[in-house]
User: Fold this.
Amino acid sequence: MAQLSVSHRLRRTPFSDGVTAAGAKSFTVYNHMLLPTVFRSVEEDCAHLKSAVQLWDVSCERQVELRGPDASRLMQMLTPRDLRGMLAGQCYYVPIVDETGGMLNDPVALKLSEDCWWVSIADSDLLLWIKGVAYGLRLDVLVDEPDVSPLGIQGPLADKLAARVFGDSVTDLRFFRYGWFEFEGTDMLIARSGYSKQGGFEVYVPDTNIGMPLWNALMEAGRDLDVHAGCPNLIERIEGGLLSYGNDMTRANTPHECGLGRFCNTQTAIGCIGRDALLRVSMEGPIRQTRAIEIDGPAVPACHDYWPMMAGDKTVGRVSSAAWSPDHQTNVAVGMVRMTHWDDGTELVVQTPDGPRGALVREQFWHG
Ligand code: THG
Assistant:
């Protein structure tokens, strides 16, 4: 395969030296930044993630900072999730929609204080949308991207490793809560969160220069835990039903179509952009929705183009992500299916590049 040319438009991260030294085999581009996708192999990385602990360079989950008297007001304009009960110390997974109810991003929002928020974004230029809204309404708020780079500590041994470097109290954090912890004299925000179902933390590293010292300290401290560099894993995230913005959903989808209706409180999210559109779709319900899909046969190739899902000669949906799961001995996939065919157990045919394959619609992901 041809190589990707790296230039200033394709940003390195504070941990790039560590990622290279660990032998990253491939990368993708996410928020104009390098994101590793494979170290040993997707299957080996998955097995290791489920049994040990990994360091993830997820710097590409960039922070958009909202700071100023209107920060909370602006934040509530961006999402149909009701933020009134949210306290400093909490993280919320928040769909962000445009005026038509179309998904713009699905970030994690962190409330630092009444007048300061971080929005930890998925792969779209959300900063520009937020700046536009703030300027258009002349809000009293600064919108910027700080030098903050998330480092994931993911896997069943994550608590053990984090405790050795940040102290035992880091293990008291509850899911989607954060606290402040010190490393070599620098305070950093650590949350119990991450893009896997294996548990762990995300360290919001507040200065590029402390990136490699922290990376090296974690690698050193976790030697006997078999710590290894890792990255969001395609197999594990499909099994867990974690969606990928730009792949499994786009601006053409509402949160309800994406199965993110449980993160919308459109009735009470007063001031939210797209509220009228979402009130309408939440009343009527979506006519297509994200589903887990099980695809028969041997390992499917990578899903670059959407694969049509057929019922007879009718196209009733499409697969957006797929991978062979060694643990489930089947191909696990994410698809969008029309309501006429979205019931659990519905049998369909998926047109893969390797030819047609039988497939089953599932109401639940695997959570494996
Ligand atoms: N962590 C941080 N920033 C991120 C991601 C992350 N930005 C980009 C991307 N990932 C955003 N997408 C997601 C998708 C799923 C979750 C988080 C971010 C997630 N979901 C949990 C689940 O579905 O089980 C729980 C959500 C909840 O119950 O509140 O964690 O990973 N910093």
